Structure formats: structure tokens, C-alpha cells
Amino acid sequence: QVWDSFGRALYNSQPHEYPITSIAWALDGELFAVGSFNTLRLCDKTGWSYALEKPNTGSIFTISWSIDGTQLAGACGNGHVVFAHVVEQRWEWKNFEITLIKRRTMKVHNVTNDAVDLLEFRDRVIKASLNYGYLVVSTSLQCYVFSTKNWNTPLIFDLKEGTVSLILQAERHFLLVDGGGLYLYSYEGRLISSPKYPGMRTDILNAQTVSLSNDTLAVKDKADEKVIFIFEALSGKPLGDGKPLTHKTEIVEIALDQKGLTNERKIAFIDKNRDLFITSVKRFGKEQKIVKIGTMVQSLAWNDTSNILCGIQDSRFTVWYYPNTVYVDKDLLPKTLYEKDASEFSKNPQLVSFVGNQITIRRADGSLVHLHISPYPAILHEYVSAARWEDGVRLCRFVKDQTLWACLAAMAVANKDMTTAEIAYAAIGEIDKVQYINSIKDLPSKESRMAHMLLFSGSTQEAETLLLQSGLVYQAIQVNINLYNWERALDLAVKHRTHVDTVLAYRQKFLEDFGKKETNQRFLQYAEGLEVDWNKIKAKIEMEIAKERERAAASPAVRA
């Protein structure tokens, strides 16, 4: 039986032919070996069996792995020592299939034209990774970087430590993890940075606890499992204000998105309750909210070419076509999802990769299942990142899919493109939002429009700050009145010595509509001896709007 660190059962095997006499984990925790009478079995960390050998050795009483996890030795009942080497590992990416056929030889098979190449190495292969058009191979002394366009001339450089325990790739660079630390290299073999953090232990890092993108590196802390350290990839320094990201419960798995601007980089993570959260990694001063977007999530993966997230959620396979929707219009998130029944993947399936529109899932018995999702959301992401809004609208009209329209609506709001947002919201029947967007478009100044866009996304504090910084005090007061934040509206009016009567008038009208009497002492205090004259108030409001219009009309001239 196999359990995870929280005591959940991951795997339960059938009874073996003979009693099990030994068991040993490889140092990187990816494999374990099981010894029995005339039997040596190699298993994956999730329990399923890679290979079964039947050496004529009697019972294998003790198994010991080499430090690099490529070979093991077993002490046998007949007095012999059995040595075994791990071969036949396979890596796949797009049309390439690579197999380690001997300890120092790899076979590359291009399935589109059936071409086969053999790659020979000086020392035994320890780790390899194939992604983004490059194959990175570490041997006991060197690192080889092959381009999939040319297998004959690899880039080779010597390793400092030797025993690489993990290789992670991003589009522009790759990460090597060994006993000495974390090393980030470009595909030309140049060392870019070597991030460090307090209490760093590299021997326990794996693909679930480290994540790499073009500009960011995230590492889950082992000493405190609620903490994620986030580094700038190019300098190796902690990102933003230097503080790590802290969650309220222990974190199990982390993943950075791969595309888009650096200041919009997102990290998704699963905690020990199996809840899926997303947050931004740029952390200057103001904390970006950590938002929950899924429950009972077993495994997750970001797409390699666009910021689409997929996960196995309880009995459903879910794709979040635009996870950023939670920061723009939370109600819209369920409309941007694709869900499929996941019962065919059996218990505890794991996501292996998400390349293009193909997702590879490893079932509990070790078999691989390939899934395809719609290519249109990825095309929409591409259009939006190039600000080709008309093409995005055209694509949605061609596909006639509500999910795609919902994604376009959220993308348009995030990028402040009101015209596209209006078309997209109308297409999914969100009439109230269309009306609100229309009212935003009629506002006189750019600052007001920006503030109301922030309000639309639920960021009331930011909207108020923007208006106050722009000197639009009345508009900031009115925003609070509209949201029934009476106390805050009065605070602003008193502080700026303007529109106290406006706040009191609206408050009085609000209470009269509900047939209530004023009980708040502060409002009673300011209402004493103050006559509410609606004509005066309306004239003041009109003056404010006229002033804002004049300002908006004058500002382009000032800029010129």
C-alpha cells in the first residue's frame, strides 16, 4: 500500500505470489523497488508497476539505491548481490518520443516522418526532460542540451555537483536542482542565476513543489509548508517586496502560468484540503487576494502556450479557460469552464502534460490517456494578447459558444476594452452588465471611467483611491452613497469639507423609503441645524459634473 504525507491511501496492490522481504525508495522519491522470492519489482511513487524481473537469487532481503537513483543493489538469500539499472524511461513532446535504451544511449523517434536518431553519452544518464523544443539531459558529470531541430550538435557543459535530482523547463531557460542548490541556465548553457532561501533543502524538491516560468521561479518551503518562496528568474532575487507568499493551510502542489506579461504572472496551488487557489505573484505593498477556484482537486497543469489551467476535480475533469476571470467578474467564472466526467480515469489519476490542446493523464494503473480540448480558447488568448479585439469577436461569432463569449467578456473587462465587453456580455444575456458598461462609457472623464471599471470588478477601495487622487472628491462620495457605505461617505464629506448636505439628504431619503428613523449619532449630530434643500444639492451636483467635463476637455490640451 502507498499513502501520501497526509495519510491518504493512494494505492493498494493485489497480493503478491510470495511474502515481500524488502522495499526501498529512490532518493528523489519518484520510484521504489520491492524485493521478494526470486522477484524484483520497480514501482512508480503512486504504486503502479513499471517492470518485473525474476532473477534466480532466492529472497531479496535488502535493497539499496545509488545516490542518483539510476541503479540499485540487492542482498539475496543465496549469498549473491544483484545489481539492477533503470532503463527504458520514456519522454514525449509533440511528435517526438525519446527512450533510454541503454544506460548511455537514447533513441529519438520522430513519429511524423519515422526518422530515428541515436544519442550516445560519455557517462550514464541520470535525468532528462523534453519540452519547448529542447531535450535537456544530465549525466553524472555533464549536462547536454539538444534542440529538436538538430540532434547532432548538442551544447555540453560540466556540472558542479553531478547528481541532478530534477530538471524543469520553461520556454526561455531551464532549472537544474542538485545537492548544492538551484541553478537556472539558458538553452545556450549560460548560468543565469542561482536563487537561495533560508533553510534550503534541495534533496526533497520535486515537480510538484517547484515551478518555473519565463520570468519567475516558485519553490514551496519544506520547513513551513504554508509558505511559497517566489524569485525573479533572471536575477535570482526574491520577487516584489521580498516576502514569501503565505497561505493559511499546508500547500501540496504549485504551478506557475507560462504566458503573458510579468506583472500579470499567476500561481495556482492545491492545499492539503484539496482546494485549488490562484493568486498573482507580483507583490508590491498591496496584497493581491488569494482566490479559491476549485475544490477536491487531485492534480493540476497549466497549458504551455496560453494561460489555460486544467485539473482533475473529484469526479470531473475541469478546464479553466480564463482563470483570471475571478479578479474581473467572479460570477462569470462558472461560464468560462469546460467540464467532463472523469470516472474513466479511475481513482487518483495524475496530469502528466498539457501541450497545445492535448492533455495527457496517467491513470492509477500506469496507463496513459490522451484528451483533446477545443482549440478556440487558445486562439482567443492569442488574439487578445495582440489586442486584436475584432478578430476575437469574429471568432466567437463563428464558433457560437457561450463559454467562449464569457471568456471574451472577462478578457475585455480585464483589458479595459468596453466596446468588446458590451458585445460579449450581450451575447451571453447579461443585460444588467451591458447597461452598466453603457453608463460607464457616458462618464465625462477618463478617471471616472477607470474607477467605475474597478467597481465593476469589485475593487471598491481601489476605485475610491483613484477618484481621490484625481481630485474627484464628489465622485468618490457618490460611489460610497451608491454602495450604501454611509459612514465612509460622511467621513469623506467631512474631511474634504464638501457635500455633507448631499450625504445627509441621500441618507434621509434612503431611511424614508424604508420608513425608518435616524439612529446613528454622527448623522444626527451633523443633521442638527442643517436644512436639506434638494434644489441646492442638485445644482451642486450638476456643477461638479460640469467641472469634471471641463477638466476632461482641458486635459488633452495640457498633455499636448
UniProtKB/TrEMBL annotation:
Residues 404-550 form the IFT80/172/WDR35 TPR domain. It is found in: Cell projection, Cilium. It comes from the Eukaryota. GO terms for biological process: cilium assembly. One of its GO terms (cellular component) is intraciliary transport particle B. It holds the Pfam family TPR_IFT80_172. Keywords: Cell projection, Cilium, WD repeat. This is IFT80 protein. It comes from Machaerirhynchus nigripectus.
